[in-house]
Design goal:
- Helices cover 24% and strands 20% of the residues.
- The chain has two domains: 10-229, 3-Layer(aba) Sandwich (Rossmann fold), CATH 3.40.50.1170; 237-352, Rossmann fold, CATH 3.40.50.
- It contains nine helices and 19 strands.
- Helix 2 (83-95) packs across helix 3 (112-122).
Length: 362
C-alpha cells in the first residue's frame, strides 16, 4: 500500500529561533482524538482539522524548542484506527526521522495503548523518543487537560541526559496526566478522570510533578542502530476472553473464523482455563490448522505460568505460547507484527516468546 509521505509541515512560533540548531527540533503529529475535537450541531464531539495549534495553546510560544506540526489529511477518531493507520504513522516518522530529535503523537485515548504498542514493534532499532499523548477534554474546552499533557510530552521528547547528549527516553511511550509509560505496557483504565492510563507490570518511565523525574534504570537504552520501519501487519487476529459458562459454540466460532492466523486467549489467573474435553479439542484443532494461540492473563498484575496448575498443563503440549506478563493490547499487536513477518514456524514461536520491545519481563 502506498502512503502520501509528503504532507506539509507547519512551523509553530516558539522562544527558539528557527536557525538555532542547538534547540531540540520536535515534530508534533496530529492524528485526531478528543484533544482536537469540536462540537457539532447536535452537540456531539467530532474530529476537527487542528490548523494553527499555537492559537489554541499560547503557552507553546514560550517553549525553548523548534516545533513543527504535521496533521493527517483526515483526522481519525481513535475508535476507527486500523493497522494500516499504524503503518502509515510509522512511515511518516521514518520519513522525518533524521530531521527531528523527537516526535509527539496526538492521538485519541480509546486505542492509544494499541497504537503505542504497535508502533513499538514496527519501529525497530528506535533511537529517538516517540511520545503518544492526548486529552480527556477537548483543547478548546474549560478545564481541558490537553495543554498540560502536550507541553509535558514535548519536554519529555526534548529531554537529554544531564551528563551527555543522548536522548533520555529512546522509546515509544505514552504520557498522560502525570506518568510516562512504555508503549508496550500501557492500558487505558479510566474514561471519566484525567488519570486515564496505567503501566501494567512495569514501573512508569517518568513522573511529572513540579519537575520531571526519570527512572533511568527502567528505560531501554540500546546501541545506536539504523531505524528499520516494518511494512506489514497481519490482521487475521482475534481475542477470546474466557468466562464461566463459555460454550463450545462460542469458542468454535472465534477459532473457526476464516483466515484466522492468531488468537489471544485471555485466561484466568496465571494462565488457567477449563479442562473440558471439548474446549481442549477446540484449541488443538485450531493449532493443527496453524492458528497461533497466545495465552494472556485477565489479571492486571502477575503473569502467565503455564503448567503451574492442571488447568494449563496441556497448553504447552499443544504449542500454545505463554504470554508471561504481557498486556492484551501488546499481545494483539505483537501477534499482528510477528505473523506479518512471514517467518518459519520455529522462528515465529521464538519471537512470540521473546521480549522484543520491553513488553514482557523474562
Amino acid at each position: 500500500m502506498s502512503y502520501d509521505l509528503n504532507l506539509p509541515l507547519l512551523p509553530l512560533p516558539t522562544r527558539a529561533d528557527a536557525t538555532d540548531t542547538t534547540a531540540p527540533r520536535l515534530l508534533i503529529i496530529y492524528t485526531g482524538g478528543t484533544v482536537g475535537m469540536a462540537v457539532n450541531r447536535s452537540g456531539g464531539l467530532v474530529p476537527m482539522k487542528f490548523g494553527r495549534l499555537d492559537r489554541k495553546m499560547h503557552e507553546l510560544t514560550r517553549l525553548p524548542f523548534r516545533l513543527e506540526l504535521l496533521s493527517l489529511p483526515a483526522p481519525i477518531d481513535s475508535s476507527n484506527v486500523t493497522p494500516q493507520d499504524w503503518l502509515y504513522l510509522a512511515q511518516l516518522i521514518g520519513r522525518h526521522y533524521t530531521e527531528f530529535d523527537g516526535f509527539v503523537v496526538l492521538h485519541g485515548t480509546d486505542t492509544m495503548a494499541y497504537s503505542a504498542a504497535a508502533l513499538s514493534y514496527i519501529l525497530e532499532h528506535l533511537g529517538k523518543p516517540v511520545v503518544f499523548t492526548g486529552a480527556q477534554v477537548p483543547v478548546g474546552a474549560n478545564r481541558s487537560d490537553a495543554q498540560r499533557n502536550l507541553i509535558t510530552a514535548l519536554e519529555i521528547a526534548a529531554a537529554r541526559h544531564p551528563r551527555g547528549h543522548t536522548v533520555r527516553v529512546p522509546e515509544v511511550c505514552v504520557f498522560f496526566n502525570d506518568i510516562l509509560i512504555r508503549g508496550t505496557r500501557a492500558k487505558k483504565v479510566e474514561s471519566q478522570q484525567f488519570a486515564a492510563f496505567k503501566s501494567e507490570n512495569y514501573p512508569p518511565l517518568a513522573r511529572a510533578g513540579i519537575g520531571l523525574e526519570f527512572d533511568d534504570k527502567s528505560i531501554r537504552l540500546l546501541p545506536a542502530t539504523r531505524l528499520k520501519v516494518h511494512e506489514n501487519m497481519e490482521t487475521g487476529v482475534a481475542v477470546l476472553p474466557l468466562f464461566p459458562g463459555i460454550t463450545e459454540a462460542v469458542v468454535s466460532a472465534v477459532l473457526g473464523v476464516p483466515g484466522l492466523r492468531g488468537c489471544v486467549l485471555e485466561t484466568y489467573g496465571s494462565g488457567n482455563a477449563p479442562t473440558a474435553e471439548w474446549f481442549l479439542n477446540c484449541l488443538a484443532e485450531a493449532r493443527q490448522r496453524g492458528v497461533w494461540l497466545l495465552n494472556v492473563s485477565q489479571c492486571e498484575e502477575g503473569r502467565v505460568v503455564q503448567g503451574k496448575y492442571e488447568t494449563s498443563a496441556r497448553f504447552a503440549e499443544m504449542g500454545i505460547v505463554g504470554g508471561e506478563d504481557i498486556t492484551t493490547e501488546a499481545a494483539v499487536t505483537k501477534l499482528m507484527f510477528v505473523l506479518g513477518l512471514g517467518l518459519s514456524e520455529a522462528r515465529t514461536r521464538e519471537l512470540l516468546a521473546t521480549d522484543l520491545r520491553g513488553e514482557i519481563t523474562l
